[in-house]
Known about the structure:
Layout: E1 3-4, E2 16-25, E3 28-29, H1 31-39, E4 46-51, E5 54-58, H2 80-97, E6 108-112, H3 124-131, E7 142-145, H4 150-164, E8 169-177, H5 181-189, E9 206-214, E10 225-232, H6 235-238, H7 248-258, E11 269-271, H8 279-290, E12 300-301, H9 305-308, H10 315-328, E13 336-341, E14 347-353
Parallel strand pairs: 1-7, 6-7, 6-8, 11-12, 11-13
Antiparallel strand pairs: 2-3, 2-9, 2-10, 4-5, 8-9, 10-14, 13-14
Amino acid sequence: xxxxxxxxxxxxxxxxxxxxxxxxxxxxxxxxxxxxxxxxxxxxxxxxxxxxxxxxxxxxxxxxxxxxxxxxxxxxxxxxxxxxxxxxxxxxxxxxxxxxxxxxxxxxxxxxxxxxxxxxxxxxxxxxxxxxxxxxxxxxxxxxxxxxxxxxxxxxxxxxxxxxxxxxxxxxxxxxxxxxxxxxxxxxxxxxxxxxxxxxxxxxxxxxxxxxxxxxxxxxxxxxxxxxxxxxxxxxxxxxxxxxxxxxxxxxxxxxxxxxxxxxxxxxxxxxxxxxxxxxxxxxxxxxxxxxxxxxxxxxxxxxxxxxxxxxxxxxxxxxxxxxxxxxxxxxxxxxxxxxxxxxxxxxxxxxxxxxxxxxxxx
Length: 363
């Protein structure tokens, strides 16, 4: 199974449609319900008591909503985090595939946590394929480790495959869970949880998101389009050696802007790389300063972490799927700039645009 860590790469020139979507997170299961709850500003956080005088918040999918894994999976050497990720991914992928007519299995480009947090088995796509009726071309699939920025990195790799002519359609996914006991213990040790009056922290979440990317030609209104992507996993991009400012996001957005018609695709809606921690505010500020002609002060901001928590490796793909859905029904103004930053050095950005269609994509 090929594994990518998404090295620096130029934005891919071609555009493809963002087709059927499958989503599950704390807001619900099935994309129509999830996106409706998001638009209705209806967060679904639960309280977790850590000690008699300490509580934190989680953006967790109710256990009763998840389908159990087959009994044979009990004998596999997979962590509790990976088991939960499989349960989440199974439901979201089945929703996506239920809307797709497949004559042949499709390759999957799957965003996962960073390598030091990744599932213990690189057989994750094969296990998921078995759960979803063998509809994936596992040998042609790729894993992209990297956390929050990995979803757009997976989109970028999928773009490359479509442009090569090897496939006209691929599945792109992202899945993660930050709510298992081991992960929560690590976040507590790092003082990254919202506990009592400590708010410079994250609300751990979990999610699985899958979308179909498809090359379409000669269609008057093909729906939401992925116009361009840009990624970097370079330490040299992440820090400015002269004044040690966090400029990784600025570098990626600058390269993205320079690769497109920036006047025609100036964003009207922005997804900044925010997850609840103040560290990203400074980096986004540098990005704004270096791209102030491109990032308008009048653009609308969307921050999914406010309602869904930090969804880890599913975070940036959730934002792309959300804006594609809302563009298709006229509830969001495009173009949309989606930015993502992982805890390490990976940064990514994407431009999504499209005219509304007459009806919502059927679930």
